[in-house]
Structure formats: structure tokens, C-alpha cells
Amino acid sequence: MEQETRLSESPSAVPGTVRPGGRTAKVRRAVLDATEDALAEAAFHTLNPDRIAAAAGVGKTTVYRRWGSPAGLVADLLRDMAEQSLPAADTGSLAGDLRANAELVLRTLTDPRMGAVFQAVIAAAACDEECARTLNGFYRTRLAEWAPVAARAAARGELPPDTDALELLRAVSAPLYYRFAVTREELTAADAERAVTAALAAAAAGAFAPRPAAGPGVD
């Protein structure tokens, strides 16, 4: 939630892994750039490893050996995007931090290039388990990177200390992704501001605090 990507942050590998160096790194960069270009121009189902190899200027055997399939290319692109993401905002207030998060999502999804890439990636995740797992990992990484905004807010007295940071952040970005991926409505700054306002109100009401377990005989 969060571009989350090359727009104002940029994308690269599973967190905690060592990036390859030298020619291997250059080949990976060329292939992933070609993959992003292809997704920006067309849908996932048109992604062809042979064409990606030609566009990247590398051998077809290299692409098939390392990435295996269109799903493998998309999965590695998502890992790349997660790696290259910029750190979360620190504006000095919870409202400012959540607004920065919402604005980042909005910029990403409304950008002609990156919006098309995310549409293709979401479509890929809907029909391929590997892509779905990697998309889930991408967003978990992004949420974790933004989670400190809740701890800082709690320290300032803006949030209950037991607020679930990930649920708070999901509440900000979920309405935007719903409009983008499900109802396919135009996204505006007003939508982002509304999501932030709603998330702040819900947090103040304790909606993201852990619920006590129900006792015996309690429905």
C-alpha cells in the first residue's frame, strides 16, 4: 500500500537476500525492466519470456532457467519492488503520516505506467499461486515498513499503545485498492483524504485494539 514502486520509491528482491553482483545483477535488472515495460503496455496473459529476453538483450535460456515462466518474472518483479521501496514518512503526526501513506498509494495507482503494472500484477495473482504469495509478501513488507508510524503515534499519545499498526494501515489503503481493482472507479485526492479520516476515527474509537476473549456464556 503503498508503492510502492519505482514511482517515488523503486523496486528489488526478497528482503534479507543478497543481491547478485556484476553481470548477474545487470541481467536481472534488464529482465525486470523489460517485464515491467511489458506489463505497463499489456496484460499479464500476454507476458512472453521469449519477448522479455529479446527486449532485455539476454538469451532465452537465461530467462527460462532463472525465471521459468511469466509468473516467475512477475514474482521477482514484486520482490524487486519491495526491496527498493523508500522508508515510511515521519511527519511528526499520525494524521500526517497516514496522509503521506494514502497519497503514496494514490500516486502509484493513478500513475499511467505503474497503475497499469499493478493491474497486471493483481490479475496475475488472481490466477497464479506463486504470484499471489509474492503479492502478499510485497504488501506485508510494505505494511511492516510503515508500522512504526503507529508506535510513534502511541508514544505521542495519539493512539492507544495496543493499536494494531497493520490493521490501521490497511484501513487507509484498502478503500483505494477497492476502487482501483474491484469497482474500477476513478481515484481522487478526496478518496485518499476520506480514507485517512475514516481510519483516524476508527483508531480513536479503539477499532484496531485487540478484542478481549469472550468468557463462558458470552455470545
UniProtKB/TrEMBL annotation:
<dbReference type="GO" id="GO:0003700">
    <property type="term" value="F:DNA-binding transcription factor activity"/>
</dbReference>
<keyword id="KW-0805">Transcription regulation</keyword>
<dbReference type="InterPro" id="IPR009057">
    <property type="entry name" value="Homeodomain-like_sf"/>
</dbReference>
<dbReference type="InterPro" id="IPR001647">
    <property type="entry name" value="HTH_TetR"/>
</dbReference>
<feature type="domain" description="HTH tetR-type">
    <location>
        <begin position="25"/>
        <end position="85"/>
    </location>
</feature>
<keyword id="KW-0804">Transcription</keyword>
<feature type="region of interest" description="Disordered">
    <location>
        <begin position="1"/>
        <end position="22"/>
    </location>
</feature>
<dbReference type="Pfam" id="PF00440">
    <property type="entry name" value="TetR_N"/>
</dbReference>
<keyword id="KW-0238">DNA-binding</keyword>
<dbReference type="InterPro" id="IPR036271">
    <property type="entry name" value="Tet_transcr_reg_TetR-rel_C_sf"/>
</dbReference>
<protein>
    <submittedName>
        <fullName>TetR family transcriptional regulator</fullName>
    </submittedName>
</protein>
<dbReference type="InterPro" id="IPR050109">
    <property type="entry name" value="HTH-type_TetR-like_transc_reg"/>
</dbReference>
<feature type="DNA-binding region" description="H-T-H motif">
    <location>
        <begin position="48"/>
        <end position="67"/>
    </location>
</feature>
<dbReference type="GO" id="GO:0000976">
    <property type="term" value="F:transcription cis-regulatory region binding"/>
</dbReference>
<dbReference type="Pfam" id="PF16859">
    <property type="entry name" value="TetR_C_11"/>
</dbReference>
<dbReference type="InterPro" id="IPR011075">
    <property type="entry name" value="TetR_C"/>
</dbReference>
